[in-house]
Description:
Elements: E1 2-3, E2 9-10, H1 28-35, H2 39-46, H3 55-68, H4 74-81, E3 85-90, H5 96-110, E4 115-120, H6 125-137, E5 142-150, H7 158-168, E6 172-179, E7 184-188, H8 190-203, E8 209-214, H9 219-234, E9 242-246, H10 251-263, E10 271-274, H11 277-289, E11 299-301, E12 318-320, H12 323-334, E13 343-346, E14 349-351
Parallel strand pairs: 3-4, 3-5, 5-6, 6-7, 7-13, 8-9, 8-10, 10-11
Antiparallel strand pairs: 1-2, 12-14
Helix pairs in contact: 1-2, 1-3, 2-3, 5-12, 6-7, 8-9, 10-11
Amino acid sequence: MVTGNGGRRIGCPGRNDVPHPARPTVTLHDVAAAAGVSVSTASRVLGGSSRTVAPEYMERVLAAAATLRYTADASARAMRRGSDAIALVADDLTTASIGLVVAAMEREARTVDAFVTVASTAGTPERQLETVRLMCALRPRALVLTSSRINADVLDGRLLRELLAYQRDGGRVVIFGDTDMPFDTISVENRASAAAIGTYLAGTGHRRATILAGAAERANVSARAAGFTDGLVQGGLDPDDIQVVNCEVSRRGGFETIGRLLAGGPLRADALVCANDVIAIGAMSALRAAGIRVPLDVSVTGFDDIPLATDVTPRLTTVAVPLARIGRDAIRLALGGPGEPRRTTERGELVVRDSTRPGT
């Protein structure tokens, strides 16, 4: 082997450098000819048609397809009759909560022989529009968007126009999140649900709270921070004794934020109220590393009730959001018929565990 200018390899191919011949494309016509049937009969067998085919013809077509290693052209089939895919466009696919939603969507989609494809947008309107355009071009059966907030006037209404055009072409649109768009919607009463934690903490004697509020630009966690404050104040806390700190919505965000707070001195709180469970779990790790006991020195709460909330020590007090039901219902709406937009609102339930100090 010789190295030429710039280090590029040139020269003699070795035994392993010889390309393998591509497997010839097998068409439906080839299968029909091998089975001795018409192309329409082969299509009915391999395309999942509801029309009856005689058992002997079905066996011959299936045997020929197996022998020839025939694979149905899914993209061509989609162009003829639309895809079996339900496209999910989400802000962030790495969070535990959206993972529960996606898993429930997949389970429900399988009941009707559909499947879920996913794409992430990082929550930016430009990426949302770009991704929706790409997904719509692939003609999915339905489109589900999940985002903390999607406004009809975003990008001068271009996203809304794209979704309306897709719907006019026969697609279905469902949104999981807060929106003013005219589509089927499932949302969570984040503020009211979060207020229950504030009320509980105040009622159990906590008098100084620090709220790890997540990112200020994310509508869902911002609403939760406002709800925590509502409940704490209604329970008797002075607003001056409530500290609100923004952070990255992740385990690292909780861990690093507690580290920064402790670097400035002792915590100014007997309750640490977190915008979601992963922030709370990161915060508890930082507290443990600093020798601060939960809940003896400080109580900690989360939001969402992901499975890990019961695996950590101490088990996390949180607000349970019915994420699996939301995923299931989103698919049911996506598979439903046209009609006036349906709006469903879910409310979380307080789940008290070991990470909060009971009242005295």
